[in-house]
Amino acid sequence: MTAQESGFDLLASFLRIQGFRAVDVELREWPTRQDPKRRVKVVVLEDERGFHVCPDCGRRHEEPWWRQTEPLRFRDCSMGDWETYLELYPCRVACCGGTRRERFPFEMPGHRMTRRFFERVAALCTRLPIYEVAAMAHLSWDTVCRIDKQAIELALGGRELSLDGLRWIGVDEVSRTGGHVYFTIVTDLESGRVVYIGDGKGDKGLRPFLERLGKRGRRRIRLTASDLGYLPLLAREFPKATHVLDRFHIVQWLNEALNTLRRRLFGGAPQDRAGRTLKVKKWLLLSGRERLEHKNKLVLARLMRLNRPLYRAYLLKEEMRGILHHPWRYFGALRRNLHAWYQSAVRCRLPEMQKVARRLKPYFDNIVAGYEQRLRMGLMESINSKIAALRGAARGYRDREYFKLKIFQRCSLPHNPWARIVL
Ligand SMILES: [Zn+2]
């Protein structure tokens, strides 16, 4: 007895689509301009369910209005080495004040592809750049982009996240292109999720968020963490909250000051060896000392011997980093350390460092507040670097809304929403 006679349809069980029978599998020539020898596999299906579903209301119709003479093809996961399509003749049903093309249970609405194919492409998009996925899936850049966008929106349940129950927020700005175009990012510091992304920076970027939060939402905010660009604004909008100056930004400032100093000392064409090395290896100065390899520590030490002022500034930066990274329990000691740092910074006779120190001084209380509240400190830094990685992978997003969705995907959704998918 063959598989056919026993009523067991091998192909159907392989396809795993209930209610449809595979009547034929063809290998067709389907040339495109890029690939004149392109061949695809087409599985011809027959509907055995005996009813047709209206795409709008979902009602079942036993009698179709008519059967279309043109077949529809849905891209499916590949069988063997070929792109695979499911082909069938759909019916039109009279429903919802007109005629509609019936909806199949396996199709992804809005796309000529099966749901499972859509999900696999979306899964790849969580980790790979669009053009890589497009090449793997033999799809156009735009199609993959559309799939990714829709998948993220489905996972988020819309384009905007709920702001209910928000108590601790972190506010920061990131650039979309590495300059000029900015987003304002609001993070829920308790859950670690990005909850809002506004266009522009400063007041302009934050205003819609404040409006969406409403009066009651604003009263619930107990703590904000941000850099100096937002701190005065947040202090005005949330007068009763604690305002924390995020330590990540303080280190950023010190790095900027160090860089300006380096440029001043070794400006123009490098004169000597130290200058040349520094021009090439400015990251030596900017990365934390504990992250450097031994070899690089030696290079740094040599550079520093050659240039006392730079060494002084470098030490000031590392000292502040040391203070900020210490898990302080006794805030008096933290305060004493900050003041001692301030004293040595204003006495160092380097205007760049003095400027940062003077700018920081009025906000020492805002730094201490972060430790008092036991704020998770690395959070804003990690979100910032995740966004930088996203920007790098896509070489700057041209599409503003898409970049926002990608940020939500990386910073608000669970790590792998497609865990059940098997490739
Ligand atoms: Zn209907």
List how many beta strands DSSP finds: 14
Strand order of the largest sheet: 12-11-10-13-14
Question: Ranges with pLDDT <50 over ≥5 residues?
Answer: none
Bound ligands: zinc ion
Q: Any idea what the shape is?
A: elongated
Strand content: 15-25%
Give the SSE layout.
Elements: H1 10-15, E1 20-29, E2 39-47, E3 52-53, E4 60-61, E5 66-67, E6 72-79, E7 82-88, E8 91-95, E9 98-101, H2 115-125, H3 130-137, H4 141-156, E10 168-175, E11 182-188, E12 193-199, H5 202-220, E13 223-226, H6 231-237, E14 242-245, H7 247-265, H8 273-280, H9 282-286, H10 294-306, H11 308-325, H12 331-346, H13 351-360, H14 364-372, H15 378-394, H16 400-412
Parallel strand pairs: 2-7, 10-13, 13-14
Antiparallel strand pairs: 1-2, 3-4, 5-8, 6-7, 8-9, 10-11, 11-12
Helix pairs in contact: 2-4, 3-4, 4-16, 7-11, 7-13, 11-12, 12-13, 12-14, 15-16
The chain binds zinc ion.
Zinc ion is lined by residues 54, 56-57, 59, 95-96.
Mind explaining what this structure looks like?
- The protein has 423 residues and is α+β, with helices and mostly antiparallel strands.
- The chain has 16 helices and 14 strands.
- The chain has helices at residues 10-15, 115-125, 130-137, 141-156, 202-220, 231-237, 247-265, 273-280, 282-286, 294-306, 308-325, 331-346, 351-360, 364-372, 378-394, 400-412; strands at residues 20-29, 39-47, 52-53, 60-61, 66-67, 72-79, 82-88, 91-95, 98-101, 168-175, 182-188, 193-199, 223-226, 242-245.
- The strands form four sheets. A five-stranded mixed β-sheet has the order 12-11-10-13-14, sandwiched between helices. Strands 1-2-7-6 form a four-stranded mixed β-sheet. A three-stranded antiparallel β-sheet has the order 5-8-9, with no helix packed on it.
- A hairpin with a 2-residue loop joins strand 6 (72-79) and strand 7 (82-88).
- The longest helix has 19 residues, at 202-220.
- The protein is elongated, with a radius of gyration of 30 Å.
- The mean pLDDT is 83.
- The structure holds zinc ion.
- The site of zinc ion has 6 residues, from loops.
